[in-house]
Amino acid sequence: MNVLIGDIGNTITKLCLAEIKNLKIKKIIYFNSNNITSKNSLKKNLKRIIKNKSINKVALFSSVVPKYQLIFKKFLKKVYKIKLREIKENSINKIIKINIKNKNQVGSDRIANAVGVYKKYKTNCIVLDFGTATTFDVVNKNGIYNGGIIAPGVNLSIKSLSSSADQIPTFSIKKQKKVIGKNTIEALYSGFYWGYSGLINNIILKIEKETKKKYKIIFTGGYADLFKTSIIRSFTIDKNITIEGIIEIFKENKKYLN
Question: CA nearest 246: which of 235, 236, 234, 257?
Answer without folding.
Answer: 257
